[in-house]
Design goal:
Helices cover 70% and strands 2% of the residues. With 168 residues, the protein is mainly alpha-helical. The chain has one domain. It has a two-stranded antiparallel ribbon with strand order 1-2. The protein starts with a helix and ends with a helix.
């Protein structure tokens, strides 16, 4: 199911076009919003609370976990590119059309990976909410993944005997 959702986000980015938005495309965009919410909740749940639940089967294969995290990150970028493609009216594009797949993808990628503005800037509150939300999601996912990988590192030893007896 996970790979299907990532593939759906890529296909819908190509299929859904802003000027002639149909009812089924609107349903797909709403589904994309729910999917992004699900990705964020799943990542927070997996990374922060797996130790307290005592469930480690999701983390048994670290390579699979890394691929899963990267896929969720990329899927979020594709969903937000779909949102931006259909919200072109809410951005000051300076003559650049967000209805092109690669332009909306570039905006989504640059918004997800850093806070610096691109040549396309938000005009109203809705566009500001979307770009700020995506920036916070990208920063949160990156920090969660970094803290998770740091927690997996082995604890360094010490040469101070007092520290060794304090941990017992």
């Amino acid at each position: 199911m996970l790979y299907n959702d990532a593939l759906i986000s890529i296909i819908l980015l190509k299929v859904c076009s802003a000027p002639a938005l149909q009812w089924w495309e609107l349903i797909c965009i709403v589904y994309g919003g729910f999917r992004v919410f699900e990705i964020i909740i799943y990542q927070i749940n997996l990374i922060l609370f797996y130790r307290y639940r005592g469930v480690l089967e999701n983390l048994a294969n670290y390579t699979r976990s890394i691929v899963h995290i990267i896929q969720n990150y990329a899927e979020t970028i594709f969903w937000f590119a779909l949102f931006y493609r259909n919200l072109e009216w809410a951005f000051d594009t300076k003559g650049i059309s967000l209805n092109h797949v690669f332009t909306s993808l570039k905006l989504s990628f640059s918004t997800m990976t850093n806070f610096t503005p691109t040549e396309i800037s938000p005009l109203g509150a809705l566009a500001n909410i979307f770009t700020f939300s995506q920036s916070v999601i990208g920063l949160t996912m990156t920090l969660l993944v970094l803290t998770w990988f740091i927690s997996l590192l082995p604890k360094p030893g010490t040469l101070d005997e007092r520290e060794e007896t304090d941990n017992i």
